[in-house]
């Protein structure tokens, strides 16, 4: 079955990726390189792109608030502003995706245990199959685990996680992410 796909870039803001106030995230340079490559492929294949920005990162006019310039949105690419970790909560993201006929989301961005995790899980409850880019999300260390451990943990626990029909697959950036493989597992 063919599903219309969109790329969702979550909280890839300068203040998170490079800091301050929240970064730098683990392997920031590698993350940006991966995200640039995926974004380029999406645009070349006419895959629609949505950006989500967290209003708690910094004041809207601050450089820290802006999407990192290496992966900045093009004119016409929607930007959703959110206050919660869940990109769908209190926003019209779901309505916009539905209006565009999207059924499959490729997700990448920051912070893995918060905004990436909650978006992946919520998307499945809203009926989307999700592809999480294995090497396309990052975070910072916490008091218990290193960022690298957190990322590996989430890649493991989110792979195959679902709610009824829709579910999450974790795939490497070198794969054809925009061609969902979910049906081969159903």
UniProtKB/TrEMBL annotation:
Hydrolase as UniProt keyword: yes
InterPro entries: Isochorismatase-like_dom, Isochorismatase-like_hydrls, Isochorismatase-like_sf
Name of the featured protein: Amidase
Family: Belongs to the isochorismatase family.
Annotated ranges, domain Isochorismatase-like: 5-143
Alphabetized UniProt keyword annotations: Hydrolase
GO molecular function: hydrolase activity
Keyword Hydrolase among record annotations: yes
Record-linked Pfam families: Isochorismatase
Organism from which the protein derives: Brevibacillus panacihumi W25
